[in-house]
Design goal:
Length: 139
Amino acid sequence: MSFLLATHLPHRLATWSPVRQERGSATIQMVVLMPALFTLMFLGVQAAVLYQGRTITLAAAQEGARVSAAADGTNVAGVAAASDFVSSTSAGLKNTSVSGNRTATTATITVTTHTVSLIPFVSPKITQSASMPVERLTG
């Protein structure tokens, strides 16, 4: 019987235990941490969307430069090839503009676009250029 009495705390001491004072702290921690976690998640997704947009824009510029640099290629054909490449993807790129320049030795295509934004009032702009030497027949 003395063992049972020694293990039971008086009611007064039980109300002041540290465990009872932290009651509901998990809810407060979640209220504080959830906005930070959501912010990190949205920033990660935004970084992935920017990377995808940059990759597609660079690939379009390279395709346009390849077409423009061909022996029988023209600047107009390179610009059209880059525009067709961007429009054939479903990456959500908006306001795409393509420009090009072909000299006797180099063909350059520049693609500028805006990607989808998860952050309000922000429209990330992506510009990529690709240059290739113009093919020439020598002999």
